[in-house]
Amino acid sequence: MIEVKSQPLAACTFIDLFAGLGGFRLALESLGARCVYSNEWDRQAQKVYQENFGEKPQDDITKVDEKTIPDHDICCAGFPCQAFSISGKMRGFEDSRGTLFFDVARIVKEKKPKVVFMENVRNFARHDGGRTLQVVQSTMEGLGYSFDQKVLSALDYGIPQRRERVYMVCFRKDLGKIDFEFPKPFPLTRHVEDFLLKESEETASLYDDRYPIIFNPKKSDKPSLKAVKLGIVNKGGQGERVYSPKGIAVTLSAYGGGVFAKTGGYLIDGRARRLHPRECARLMGYPDSYKISKRPNQAYKQFGNSVVVDVLQFIAIQISKALESAK
Question: Taking the CB of the first residue and of the last residue of the chain, which one, N or C, has fewer CB atoms within 10 A?
Answer without folding.
Answer: C
